[in-house]
Write a sequence for this structure.
């Protein structure tokens, strides 16, 4: 049977007293990790969400989002940290991320990078509060932000026209590239006469067609001409890369049709004529439009008003007035001729004449002035006019062409 000696009993009593006293001292220390319950008189303020700004929109990049918080404060002596909640509803019933102990940053602000990116297509709500292990402060105000998919405008694929064509009126077709995260995308078609696109012939922008293929047409192009073309997309803020570049050559010019029956050309009786011949080629630039043109048109109209009144070929009229004006003009200068509408030698303009201002042969040349000579054509009261539409025609993206209608 063991017995305690008087000394042993005293030692045990001292140990018990020391243990109780040390625990009491430890609990009385407000910085002790094991302090129990809220410490009276300690006030922890609410932190404040700073970024992302309330109601802001973030584009999904695949990288975790970063939050910026204005630190909370505490009247106590214990170290505080932040707690964070991120949810998909402002009541935080659907929590997608929670952090219980975020160390405060310096300079009064804390930057917190989420461990994984939040997915696109949702609005997220977040709040934060501070704690010190014994006391917990109030939550901050709730802030929200939305994550949207990134804008994607991939390059389209040019498919046609390509190579040597059997037409001069090609349709330009592309297979649409991938588009997401945006709307209102248009395709810009660039058509050039050089492979480096330094000689642009046309630029046309059309809306992207939802069928998967987008088509554009320029109408008639000059015969036997080589072009290069490419396309890119844009929503006004972002552009796609260019598509592949294709090359094509329009068809050769067809043989002119048989000359149509005339309705009496020549110079009307009493109309003054020129001395014949042809103005020499210019040494550079353009020849000017001769000044006598309108006088000739008026003189023919006075000499043969019935031909002018009956000049609407589409309604059973004849070419007589046009033929007489051209024949009279050619007594002054054989550079005068008819116009191939929009550059088409097989489609003569029915109220327009041309004057070849350049060097070389007249036939099929596009170096022409384009003059409208019948006002109100096919109306009830056609009249003799002289309207230079050369610049208007060129600025509209088309051309004129000198033709003879097989008459000379």
């Amino acid at each position: 049977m063991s017995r305690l000696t008087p000394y042993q009993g005293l030692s045990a009593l001292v140990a018990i007293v020391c243990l109780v006293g040390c625990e009491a001292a430890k609990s009385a220390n407000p910085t002790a990790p094991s302090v129990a319950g809220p410490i009276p008189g300690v006030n922890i303020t609410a932190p404040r969400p700073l970024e992302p700004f309330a109601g802001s929109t973030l584009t999904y990049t695949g990288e975790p989002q970063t939050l910026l918080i204005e630190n909370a404060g505490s009247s106590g002596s214990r170290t505080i940290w932040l707690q964070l909640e991120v949810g998909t509803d402002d009541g935080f019933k659907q929590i997608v991320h929670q952090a219980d102990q975020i160390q405060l940053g310096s300079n009064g602000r804390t930057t917190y990078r989420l461990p994984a990116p939040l997915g696109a297509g949702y609005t997220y709500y977040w709040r934060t509060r501070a704690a010190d292990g014994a006391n917990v402060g109030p939550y901050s105000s709730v802030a929200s932000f939305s994550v949207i998919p990134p804008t994607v405008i991939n390059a389209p694929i040019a498919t046609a026209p390509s190579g040597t064509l059997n037409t001069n009126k090609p349709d330009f077709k592309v297979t649409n590239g991938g588009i997401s995260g945006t709307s209102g995308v248009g395709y810009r078609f660039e058509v050039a006469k050089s492979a480096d696109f330094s000689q642009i012939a046309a630029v046309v922008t059309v809306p992207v067609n939802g069928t998967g293929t987008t088509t554009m047409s320029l109408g008639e192009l000059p015969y036997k001409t080589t072009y290069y073309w490419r396309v890119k997309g844009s929503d006004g803020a972002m552009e796609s890369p260019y598509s592949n570049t294709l090359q094509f050559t329009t068809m050769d010019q067809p043989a002119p049709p048989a000359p149509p029956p005339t309705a009496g050309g020549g110079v009307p009786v009493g109309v003054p004529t020129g001395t014949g011949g042809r103005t020499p080629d210019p040494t550079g630039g353009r020849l000017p439009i001769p000044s006598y043109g309108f006088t000739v048109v008026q003189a023919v109209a006075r000499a043969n008003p019935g031909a002018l009144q009956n000049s609407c070929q589409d309604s059973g009229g004849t070419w007589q007035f046009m033929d007489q004006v051209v024949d009279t003009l050619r007594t002054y200068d054989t550079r005068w001729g008819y116009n191939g509408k929009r550059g088409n030698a097989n489609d003569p303009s029915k109220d327009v004449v041309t004057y070849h201002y350049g060097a070389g042969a007249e036939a099929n040349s596009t170096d022409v002035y384009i003059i409208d000579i019948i006002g109100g054509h096919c109306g009830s009261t056609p009249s003799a006019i002289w309207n230079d539409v050369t610049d208007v025609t060129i600025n509209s993206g088309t051309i004129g062409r000198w033709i003879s209608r097989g008459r000379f």
Notes: Residues 48-148 form a domain with the Immunoglobulin-like fold (CATH 2.60.40.10).
